[in-house]
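Minutes, project check-in

Agenda point 3 was the complex the collaborators sent over. CS summarized: two entities, 225 residues total, and the question is how they sit relative to each other. Sequences were read into the notes so everyone works from the same version.
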Amino acid sequence: DAGITQSPRHKVTETGTPVTLRCHQTENHRYMYWYRQDPGHGLRLIHYSYGVKDTDKGEVSDGYSVSRSKTEDFLLTLESATSSQTSVYFCAISESPSSVYGYTFGSGTRLTVV
Amino acid sequence: SQQGEEDPQALSIQEGENATMNCSYKTSINNLQWYRQNSGRGLVHLILIRSNEREKHSGRLRVTLDTSKKSSSLLITASRAADTASYFCATASAAGNKLTFGGGTRVLVKP
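CS then shared the predicted structure for the full assembly.
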């Protein structure tokens, strides 16, 4: 999607290994979000950022950490991957939480933990 | 737990018919948004309605909001096969700094 890219697009990893997903934006938006999408659960917020080095937890933050050292990059780390973290992960950006344009989502990262 | 719950979970209609889906939520909101997701893709923002608004239109989309009932509806008129997708409502809290999504409605438009 224009202005936001996620990497990698697909990843298979082993249980217990650390994994880092990257979200990169070129829109200079202040707000960035990480969601996971699972069947039957819709999208659930993991962590979000409201500025460089400013982050907060979402509803499913256990087992995840984030970092934002630059406006354009928001990293999601699974500290020790578990099978329950197999999911599709979406990054989103917005210029303000109430922007009429809503959030812009990346194309997602499909993560499989074996 | 999900703030927004869509109804129905799935909907199958013929091309040219209207599609209506509903969203209910639990707590006070700043705004409510609707998104579309095509299979295997990211979500695309469709429309935002603020808590002090009752109805908005965008092309073939009509959204209503009833804050007294904590519910919203999305109407797609004259549906097309390309409207086949999942549709999600999302609510922004009073602080407005994050969105909470519902489980979505899967819409199939048959040619």
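Noted in discussion: The two ends of chain A are 29 Å apart (CA to CA).
Follow-up: revisit at the next meeting once the mutant set is ready.
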